[in-house]
Amino acid sequence: MSRSELTLSVEACVDCGLCVAVCAYDALVLRGTGLEIIHNECVLCDACVAACPTEALAIEPVGSRATVS
């Protein structure tokens, strides 16, 4: 089974903070420069992906696309 990771489309992200609000693991931080993913805190629970109104977040196989964090 391949490993997965949370990925972010910077172009789609509108910095609304909904993903940060629903993350129970403090794996997302909204900074002045945009959203930061703290991968070692993320348990891939999918709450942030479901909350994102622009589909900027996704859980994908490691290396499937450039990950920005």
The structure class reads alpha+beta
| Largest sheet entry | 2 strands, antiparallel
Q: In what range is the share of β-strand residues?
A: 25-35%
Task: Name the strands of the widest sheet in spatial order.
Answer: 1-4
Can you put this structure into words, describing what you see?
The mean pLDDT is 92. The longest helix is centred in the first third of the chain and has 5 residues, at 18-22. The chain has a two-stranded antiparallel sheet with strand order 1-4. It is built from 2 helices and 4 strands; from the N terminus they run βαββαβ. Helices cover 14% and strands 26% of the residues. It has 69 residues and is of the alpha+beta class. It starts with a strand and ends in an 8-residue tail after the last strand.
Per-chain topology:
Blueprint: E1 4-8, H1 18-22, E2 28-31, E3 34-37, H2 47-51, E4 57-61
Antiparallel strand pairs: 1-4, 2-3
What key attributes describe this structure?
single chain, 69 residues, alpha+beta, 2 helices, 26% strand
Quick overview of this protein structure:
With 69 residues, the chain is an alpha+beta fold. 14% of the residues lie in helices and 26% in strands.
